[in-house]
Amino acid sequence: MTEQRSRDEVKQQVREASDIVEIIGEVVSLRRAGNNFVGMCPFHADRKTPSFSVSHQGQFFHCFGCGESGDVFSFLMKYHQMSFPEALEHLARRSHIELPAAGGAGRGEADPRPRLFAVNEQAALLYQRCLLESREGQPGRDYLARRGCPPEAIRRYRLGYAPSQDQVGWQYLISRLARQGMSERELEQAGLAVRGDQGRGYDRFRDRLLFPIFDLSGRVCGFGGRILGDGQPKYMNSPETPVFDKGRLLLGLAQHRDEIRRRRRVVVVEGNFDMLSLAVAGMDYVVAPLGTALTRQQLRLIKGLVDEVLLFFDGDAAGIKAAMRAVPLVLAERIKARVATLPAGDDPDSLVRRQGREAVEGLLDEARPLADFVLEALIRQHGLSLEGKARIVGELRPIIAEAGDEAERELMISHWAAGLGLYSGDRILNSLEFRSCPRNTTALRPPAAPPPPRTAPSSEAGPETMPLAQRQLLDHLILYPEHLDELCAGGALELLSASSAREIVVAQQGLAAAGCLQPERLLECLPDGMARRYVARLLFSPASAVPPEAEQEEAASRLRAMHAWLGRMRREQQSRELLARITAAQQAGDQAEVLALLARKQGLDRGSEG
Ligand SMILES: [Zn+2]
Fold it and tell me: 242, 240, 330: which is closest to 293 by C-alpha?
């Protein structure tokens, strides 16, 4: 009871000691707006509107775009996917508040993580002492000296060395940490020891140079190690543990965060030594994922700090693959990214040591936007013949399918399609077998009272700004051109409020008159702009496949719904027109006209009720 109360008190204390503006400001760029702070929402896709507001006074955030809101705990939980205890601990550490020990009766297993952090910390200290001071550390010191890494860097990155078993046996770490009361079992849990066949434990890292890997609050979560001898594997990380999730950590971020934030850019390299060598050369705005492809969580750690991410990859096939894999992530996280590639045979480490920082920064300055880079690489690989384009589209399609939302998909498609000249002739289109009839998942339900197109439509507004029912009508007209005449006779064209939407329908009518009504043909005859982008996006939207046998029935039921809606809209529009005329007649004092019009309007309203 008292313990529970004290935990609640601590929670309150931590909340009060934490500044939500500062916490969120680490990952989202916020600017002051009156009493509040605003920025781009990290939870929904919108590149333009700073709808995300943070109240300093109330210590909460709210997004007016997607409705996400909460306090500092819920932000950490949602954005960094922390559990509540993790968020509490993270904030308590920042404010130097001691948390009451977890555990106690009825609480089940105590949280193992504080202990694992402690074990990792002790291991890092021991390995570093070994590297800096001990006789066994000589191979590590020699190696780093050969690579031009000075002692200051060793201290800054807290590098360490795990000596070889030939020198110190198999329990170097285990025996030393045991003296500090850390059990073999705990080392095993932390990924630092491995249990052998005989049940006897041995050190996981031997004859390896070690990079401790830190989390946002500077705790050692695990290690990345490079072998110095001939052993295998060359690189080895700690295994996944309750504190080491390598997809959510970045090597170098703990040390470089301030510089990254100051420069508003970050360079992502592939290897630990690439990171280290560039940093030693003075480029301390570099991070490295831990031997795997970049993840979305890793991008989230940096995106709020920077205006752009520079991916520094090998120019070979693997580098291109890595770049391709990054496209959907970068788009989904709405990050500007460019790719710089290395000369054949070089990595950032060798390049910076041979040619210096200027050469590397020169390459980075020439980095290509990610999407262009991917397309250019594929064109080099496959060529621009019809067959080549088909292969390229085949490779791009899975990337497109991973887009976070429609806007990103549209962006990729319009970008790449233009680069491939994809809309220039239908033979190419046919050879690429573009999806011609995607279907929306939601059944079509014309809303009971759709907002009518009141005013003259702005020529600026794209079809996507139209009310849902109008968009459904437009989509139907694009996807089922066979219903075009029928629906246009019912007044469909006039009911579309966006001029670009009407542009599409008029183009469609032109195609119908020419007798070539494939949806894809529509793309060719629309000028580049909102209308064409809308159609492209619709045609590429992932089909929530309607089985062919159900398709006809689906189309027919949609058509019926369209007709019913059109009829209602027509009557409403007439009713509105009558109302305007009645008002005018009243102002003109023409009583007879008012009465006549009112009678017509009543008739109309009765009809629409029936
Ligand atoms: Zn939002």
Answer: 330
